[in-house]
Amino acid sequence: MGLREKYSSDNPANRVRPGWVFTYQHPAHMLALFFGAGCLRPGPGTWGTLAGVIVWAFLVQFFDWKALLPIIIAGFFLGAWASQKTSDDLGVEDAGCIVIDEVIAVWAVCLFLPQNWLGWLSAFVAFRIFDIVKLPPASIIDARLHNGWGVMIDDVLAAVWALAAVLALDWACTTLGLSYLGIF
Q1: Residues of 150-179 as b/e, b for ≥16 C-beta within 10 angstroms?
Q2: Most exposed: 42, 49, 60, 122, by fewest CB within 10 Å?
Q3: What SS3 class is residue 157?
């Protein structure tokens, strides 16, 4: 499935519009829709990513990376379960309202960047670009693995691309004597 088909209004995954009642009917729904962020329109994936960055900015005030890494890992496995349960209950594979994959993936990007507004903004922008574009192998997983694992894995792979892009941009800016994130 190409980008045009994936984001088309004709795609059943984009026509499902669960509300707040559905979100809070089951713990899996709450997690998959990230407490309602997936109900926001337009662009629930963007809203989910933004919610993820906001929650991340809060979490890093209280936890270091050693505590956050297990949270991300657990979130990945819980997200796969919640995505599958929610997809089954909605009757649609990878519904656009399922945003836990965006949340966990953007957290993975944020983990490796400076913990400040520029690092978080970089994670948000880069991840949204690579989540939408879906370069291989994310596009392959997205096309072939139609379950909760596929929902989560393709976004984690997009996160790897996003992190690589941000690090490459930071390296290029540093090499040119410009200041960006200051990682290198």
Answers
A1: bbbbbbbbbbbbbbebbbeebeebeeeeee
A2: 42
A3: helix
Find where tokens 């410009």 sit.
178
User: According to the model, what pLDDT value does residue 182 have?
Assistant: 80
The CA radius of gyration of the chain, in Å to the nearest whole number, is 16
pTM: 0.92
Q: Which tens digit of pLDDT belongs to each residue from 76-110?
A: 999 999 999 999 999 998 899 999 999 999 999 99
Residue 99 to residue 95: CA distance in whole angstroms: 9
SS3 state of residue 176? coil
User: In the block, which residue shows the tokens 């990878």?
Assistant: 94
> Residue 138 pLDDT > 90, yes or no?
yes
Q: Which residues of 67-77 are buried (b: 16+ CB within 10 A; e: fewer)?
A: ebeeebeebbe
Measured CA to CA, the distance from residue 172 to residue 183 in angstroms comes to: 11
SS3 38: helix
Total Cβ atoms within 10 A of residue 5: 9
Give the ranges where the chain is alpha helix by DSSP (H): 3-6, 12-15, 20-23, 27-32, 44-59, 65-90, 100-111, 117-133, 138-144, 148-175
